[in-house]
Design a protein that fits this description.
The chain has 636 residues and is mainly beta. Helix content is 6%, strand content 39%. The chain has 2 domains: 84 residues, Immunoglobulin-like (Sandwich), CATH 2.60.40; 439 residues, no CATH class.
Length: 636
């Protein structure tokens, strides 16, 4: 509410004050006495000279004294003292003006004095920074009354910023989450011992290259971590360093399984209040395929080494699906390890590691079922209705699970995805519903599955597409909701640079029509090994977004945001500048995408719709085969 001040107008004096009247009375009495004495002298006369009445010479006329000026209302200074000031930039105001810049502790005085009867109101226009401080004004308002104002007291104190993460990482707290590798993971941190413990509850990731049957599922690794202070991965501030965890090593007891850590791009996790986001240890994956007959191998997986996999987890989860029920937007990223025929012009070559994206919306019902809408891949993260997952001993777990549909399959996204099933698929979904404050943040993991029947065809199973998705309520969001700085992870550590031959000349039936498909491949070396790319930060301001190097805060890409939201909750995004890994763009200027926000978490999906065409025109029919998913949480 604006505050207005009224200044008194000067009033003319009706009569001189009593002390002035006394001066004039004294002067009048003196003059009357002088006239009386003169008259007496003239009357007495004197001897000598001619007769008659003698005259004294007339005195010179008295020069009248200039009367003292009538007093006006005095101008009084307004000031006081400042104490506790450490930062720079403090500016005070009086009556919403008369700016006074203050450099340090000591007396202050505004340049413009005020008349008696005038009101004053001292306020802080600009608070000091470096360090950030809050200044409180005492005796801030009043009225000038016959004397200068010198008792305004400005007391400054340091702003105690809210902590970005817990002061102590308690090993009793478990973060439950999912990874783009298709893994359901639980992790603990012990800041006193500087150690972590990570359990791969469910996982399709093999423990060794060359085979697929033995995975990390059920294994628990432990290892050392450090904060990045003083290293190449140091964050812009010490308080941010304290919330960043760099994994140094890890393995099972006895060393049966160990993870390989690339010191140039180690897994980095960022811990906040109630959630953790970043990377978990990667793996090397390769498989010659499943032998069917006569030396025919299918589902071969080209070699890939992953430094890390994107991950998000929560310290609290919801286990009542009626609380989850509602309509959501879903942004997801998946990879099919063996690839599809769409990756080559003829369909004869499967280059493997084909990326797919999900940009869909759907409604989850209280019974765990999913009702699709018209968006592509709606409800493709759900098979059978979601139900509470149970541990091996029958005890309830803190997440939900969804199994195969009656047709044996668990839904997979993409064109010509290979699923070999002679019995219900063991691929399934895990839904982790994190609770951060009062907000629910659902994440869905597709846990792929493959089984090498060792030459026994009926024992084979191939349904190994894997990935994860972020869900956000399908309700409009405002520009004010996307503000501040966020830190997180993205899919570049899995698939950074995508190769594609373009549109295939071979048609394929999809949803009752023939298309000429396009698909990409993330071959070995295509993932980013740049920690600054894989652990990107995001800054939102004034309806735009900037991807940042989290360690230097240098901008990496600029995004324009459109809050029109043809589909509620989906903010349209256009890249103004390419996002590079080295000199190669992960996505290019002009590429488009969408963004969602749920609680303190944002999701960004670029090139999430791979448009397919019913005509063969490789020059003009250009599809987006390089999806990019970024997830992060509010830092400051």
């Amino acid at each position: 509410m604006p505050v207005f001040f009224l200044r008194s107008r000067s009033r003319p004096y009706a009569a001189a004050p009593a002390d002035v009247r006394a001066v004039w009375h004294e002067r009048f009495a003196t003059l009357a006495t002088a006239v009386t004495i003169g008259a007496v002298l003239v009357g007495c006369g004197g001897s000598g000279g001619s007769g008659g009445v003698p005259f004294l010479p007339a005195p010179p006329p008295a020069t009248p004294e200039t009367p003292a000026p009538l007093p006006h209302a005095a101008n009084r200074a307004v000031g006081g003292t400042v104490t506790g000031l450490k930062g720079s930039g403090l500016v005070l105001q009086n009556n919403a003006g008369d700016d006074l810049a203050v450099a340090g502790d000591g007396p202050i005085r505004f340049a413009t004095p005020l008349a008696d009867g005038a009101a004053y109101a001292v306020t802080v226009k600009t608070a000091p920074a470096a360090p950030s401080q809050r200044c409180v004004v005492g005796n801030a308002t009043g009225t000038v009354n016959g004397a200068a104002i010198d008792n305004v007291q400005v007391v400054c104190s340091d702003v105690v910023a809210a902590s970005l993460c817990p002061d102590v990482l308690d090993p009793a707290i478990t973060y439950t989450g999912g990874a783009a590798s298709g893994e359901y993971v639980k992790v603990k941190f012990d800041s006193a011992a500087m150690k972590y413990e990570m359990t791969f509850v469910e996982s399709p990731v093999p423990t060794s290259s060359g085979q697929r049957n033995d995975t990390r599922a059920g294994l628990t690794i432990s290892g050392d971590f450090e904060h990045p202070t003083g290293t190449a991965l140091a964050m812009p501030s010490v308080r941010q360093d304290r919330c960043a965890i760099v994994l140094k090593n890890g393995g099972t007891p006895g060393g049966m399984y160990t993870v390989a850590i690339n010191p140039q791009a180690p897994p980095v996790l960022f811990v906040g209040h109630g959630l953790v986001v970043g990377g978990i240890p990667g793996a090397t994956v390769q498989h010659d395929g499943l032998e069917f007959s006569g030396g025919l191998f299918l589902a071969a997986v080209p070699p890939r080494t992953f430094d890390s996999y994107p991950f998000i987890g929560f310290s609290h989860t919801v286990t009542d699906f009626t609380q989850v029920a509602g309509t959501y937007n879903e942004l997801g990223f998946r990879v099919t390890p063996e690839g599809t025929p769409s990756q080559s012009d003829s369909g004869a070559h499967w280059f493997g590691w084909e990326p797919q994206a999900i940009q869909a919306s759907q409604t989850f019902n209280a019974d765990g079922s999913c009702t699709p809408d018209a968006s592509q891949y709606s409800c493709f993260s759900t098979g059978a209705p979601w139900k509470l997952r149970r541990n091996a001993d029958g005890s309830p777990d803190g997440v939900f699970t969804s199994g195969a549909n009656p047709d044996l399959r668990y839904p997979a996204v993409g064109v010509e995805v290979f699923q070999f099933l002679v019995r219900p698929s063991l691929a399934h979904g895990i839904m982790i519903v994190g609770k951060v404050g009062d907000q629910l943040v659902p994440v869905i993991v597709r846990v792929g599955h493959i089984n090498d029947g060792q030459g026994i065809v009926l024992a084979h199973m191939v349904d190994d597409q894997a990935g994860f998705s972020l869900l956000a309520p399908a309700t409009n969001i405002t520009q004010a909701v996307l503000a501040g700085r966020y830190v997180g992870t993205n899919s570049a550590s899995v698939c950074g640079v995508v190769m594609s031959p373009g549109q295939s000349s071979r048609s394929s039936p999809v949803n009752g029509q023939m298309i000429f498909p396009s698909a990409g491949a993330c071959t070995d070396g295509s993932a980013s090994s740049d920690a600054a790319v894989n652990n990107g930060a995001m800054s939102f301001q004034g309806g735009s977004a900037t991807l940042l190097n989290p360690f230097t805060s240098a901008p990496s890409s600029d995004l324009a945001l459109d809050f029109t939201q043809a589909r509620p909750g989906l903010v349209s995004v256009t890249a103004n500048r390419s996002f590079l890994s080295g000199g190669t763009p992960v996505f290019k200027a002009g590429d488009t995408g969408v963004m969602v926000k749920v609680g303190p978490v944002y999701g960004l999906l670029m090139n999430g719709v791979n448009q397919q065409f019913t005509t063969y025109d490789p020059v003009n029919n250009v599809s987006k085969v390089n999806p990019f998913l970024s997830i992060g949480f509010f830092a400051e």
